[in-house]
Amino acid sequence: MIARSHISFGGNFLILVGGQERWKFKGGTHSYTRKIEDLGKLLIFDTEKDFFAWSERLKIVNVGVEIGENEASLIDYKFPDNCNLIFGNERTGLPKELITNMVKTLTIPQYGEVGSLNVAVAASIVFYEMKRSDKSKYVIEGEKFKSVD
């Protein structure tokens, strides 16, 4: 679901950290998921250190998404032109030592009784807000959006 939303909102690279073997799809993966995987640009890094070195070399700003008191609100955030959005494990979130490598950590304001969102839902919301904030103009051609900038 994250890959589908990432591609739908015009994301560049979908980056996974943890080595190639960890991210191989199993044989039973739905064929549509495999098609989505082919549409994206997948980068896999063995370690967080490798990922952060790559980001630094390309001058890409790393922005985390996490629940906490010290994070900036997604509502007020102005995304940099060239940034990675980093989401943690659905159960444990982003490790504290990883957060220290972020330029900013964002939180999605939530108002109901449930304290957190599924990571795919959270990613979709952030992807949407990032795309919405770039003020690009779009038209609908057929059943797809196309940028007119």
Question: What does this molecule look like?
Answer:
- The protein has 149 residues and is an alpha/beta fold.
- It has a single domain, classed as Alpha/beta knot, CATH 3.40.1280.10.
- It is built from 5 helices and 8 strands, in the order H-E-H-E-H-E-E-E-H-E-H-E-E.
- The chain has helices spanning 2-8, 31-39, 48-57, 96-99, 119-133; strands at 13-17, 41-45, 61-65, 72-73, 83-87, 104-107, 138-141, 144-147.
- The strands form 3 sheets. The chain has a 4-stranded parallel beta sheet with strand order 4-6-3-5, with helices on both faces. A two-stranded parallel ribbon has the order 1-2. It has a two-stranded antiparallel ribbon with strand order 7-8.
- The longest helix has 15 residues, at 119-133.
Helix percent reads: 25-40%
Based on CA inertia axes, which overall geometry fits? Answer: globular
What percent strand?
15-25%
What is Rg? 16 Å
How many β-strand runs? 8
